[in-house]
Amino acid sequence: MSRVRVVLAMVVVLVFSLTGGPGAIADPGLVVGDGAPVAPGATVAAQMGCEEPTTAPATGPGITGGPWLRDPEGHQPWSVSSTLTVASDAAPGPVTVTATCGDRPLTATLTVADTGSGGTTVRLLVGAAIVLVVVGAMILLQRRRRASAG
Description:
The chain is an alpha+beta fold. It has helices at residues 2-19, 117-149; strands spanning 30-32, 43-49, 55-60, 63-65, 69-70, 79-86, 93-101, 104-112.
């Protein structure tokens, strides 16, 4: 049993040494939205861990960021927040968003949703085909019942 305790203690010490200890606060970097795709023309919240007084708005292909704001009550002084706008003509797919804290660039990935009607049209056509097959099968079954009963 003592060997298990020694191994467990070594694992705990190793984890704390790799993470900076129990009191270390991880730099949250740049966080954009909640990970869900964002529709073109929509806005999304962003947050950045930055105690520096100078910041630059977040930008990316088809992305425009507003100014970074600190909590006016002083909560979480390391955190600034902003709102990003996705251009109405932004291409669907992943976009690298970059913001600057002091002279340090931070990046995050935002996924622009594909709102094209192509996917919707295909789903509607497939649904209509399934309905037609089911209705056709029901009609054939009714004809067979009538033919065998008659």
